[in-house]
Amino acid sequence: MRKSWWKILAAVLLIYTFAAGFLIKVPYIGNLKETIRNLFFHVPMWFGQIILLTTSLVYSILYLRKPDLRYDIFAACFAKTGILMGILGLITGAIWATYTWGEPWSNDPKQIGVAIALLIYFAYLVLRNAIPDIDKRAKIGAVYNIFAYFIYLPLIMILPRLVESLHPGGKGVSGNPGLNGADLDATMRLVFWPAVIGWTLLGTWITTLNIRLYLIRDKNLINAK
Amino acid sequence: MTKTIFALLKKDLLLELRQQHSFYGILLYVASTIFVLYLSINNPEGEVWNGLFWIIQLFVCVNAVAKSFLQESRGRMLYFYTISGAKAFIIAKLIYNIILMLLMSLLSLGLFFILLKNPLSNTLLFTGIVCLGGISLSLVFTLLAAIAAKAQQNAALMAIMGFPLIIPQLLLLIRLSKAAFGEVFRESALLQLSFLIVGLDIMVIALSIILFPFLWKD
Predict the structure, then answer these.
(1) CA-based nearest residue to A182, from A164, A194, A168, A199
(2) Closest chain A C-alpha to B14 CA, distance in angstroms
(3) According to the model, what pLDDT value does residue A94 have?
């Protein structure tokens, strides 16, 4: 119970997200109509993705400081769940875009940014698989992960602000590249932030399961001194 | 450390001057690519010209920079371990690749002018942007070449890793080059874009110097 409280919290928060997200009264804004409810699913995916990828970065740095194979497994698993979140965010975004912008893909700078991000992290997985030696794979993977993260961050934080965008937070519009925080409706905020925490916790949960699998698979390697 | 860097840089430049096959190899690569372009699209519009130019730069850079770590055999690396540190080594490689890429960029710009005409309204500005672009591309690909060389699967892996990572710089550069085609920018936008590219370059240099020591020895 003490160890699994956050899993219960994740489940509760997600049940709350789904229940409240579909039931509360939402403001009617332009052509958004009811699709605004997607905010509780699409945007938290991106928050979750960034948090998971940042966690992956931290473990990569830890690995370079102290070469423990466990850190490498952590970094890889968090990156994988980050990719999963990215794909889900892309799909929910495409569905949303179909109904508000008229087509699933309209070459919006943020859509391009996401496509690039996925390519970067797929390359990370390909790189890892290309190296048969375990220690070498861990080290080179960590180096690439750190390098990629610091190029990825400006890509999604700076570039979208410089150009016009259909998303909130483009050039000449207020807000950050994630969402226009200031004018988020008060009741929606009550659902939105729990949704962010809920989805992130779910991502972490998935990751820990994956990590346990790898720890068992490689237990001879990890314990061998 | 400065002495080591200069020694390593001198060694790379001397090797280049004496062997010459890699320099002329890349030069021929540039020339034949641009000639193929000339045959397939004679006299392209400004925007097409701009896009093609930067894509060619990208491919030239992958080919030119990949060589810098490929040519170091295992035995020679063992020798380098004894005479220099990781930081001096990567700095020397960065400088060497910048020089090589600047040369290649300017040469391919010249070939573009000869074969595909000159649609620019401000040639000098574009030449400056090309230099900046050459530096940016070579910096990013230097560390990637080091990673790819360690993974022992060079050309393909470098493209897979490098192309997504270079897109931010490439987009900024293509955007910036439009100024040389007579597109009017807001007063501060041009400087802002240039500073952004320079900022990214500085970050890449810092990351290379921090991360390369981990790749240095197996």
Answers:
(1) A168
(2) 30
(3) 86
Question: Does residue A6 lie in a domain region?
Answer: no
Inter-chain residue contact A131 with B160, CB threshold 8 Å? no
Task: Identify whether A134 is part of a domain.
Answer: yes
Q: How far apart are the two ends of chain A, measured CA to CA in Å? A: 33
Residue B75 contacts A, CB cutoff 8 Å: no
- What is the value of ipTM here, to two decimals? 0.86
Cα–Cα distance for residue pair B218/B210, rounded to 1 Å: 17
E strand or H helix that includes residue A20:
helix A5-23
∠ at Cα A214 (A209, A216), nearest 5°? 95
Per-residue pLDDT tens listing for chain B (218 residues): 888 888 888 988 888 888 877 778 888 888 898 889 888 887 788 888 888 899 999 988 888 887 777 777 778 888 888 888 888 989 999 999 999 999 989 999 998 888 888 888 888 889 999 999 999 999 999 988 888 888 876 667 888 888 888 888 888 888 888 888 877 777 777 888 888 889 989 999 999 999 998 888 76
Count: domains in chain A: 1
Residue A161 counted as domain residue = yes
- At residue A106, φ and ψ (nearest 5 deg) are -125, 30
At residue A175, the pLDDT reads 47
Sign of torsion over alpha carbons B91, B95, B98, B101: negative
**Looking at the domain assignment, is residue A53 inside a domain?**
yes
Buried b (16+ CB within 10 A) or exposed e, B159-178: bbbbbbbbbbbbbbbbbbbe
Name the residue in chain A with its Cα closest to that of B217. Answer: A136
In chain B, where are the structural domains located?
A: 2-216
Q: Residue A218 has what pLDDT? A: 84
Interface residue of A72, A119, A144 to substitute, partner B, most B CBs within 10 Å: A144
Domain residue limits at A151: 16-23+34-220
Burial class (CB in 10 A: 0-12, 13-18, 19+), A40: buried
In whole angstroms, give the CA distance from residue B197 to residue B115.
29
Euclidean distance between CA atoms B83 and B93, whole angstroms? 15
User: What residues contact residue B53 under an 8 Å CB cut-off, 6+ apart?
Assistant: B108, B109, B112, B177
**Residue A172: predicted pLDDT:** 47
Residue in B143, B154, B157, B167 to test binding to A, most A beta-carbons within 10 Å: B167
CB atoms within 10 A of CB B156: 11
Across the range A170-179, mean pLDDT stands at 49
Q: What is residue B184's DSSP assignment?
A: P
What is the reported pLDDT for B79? 85
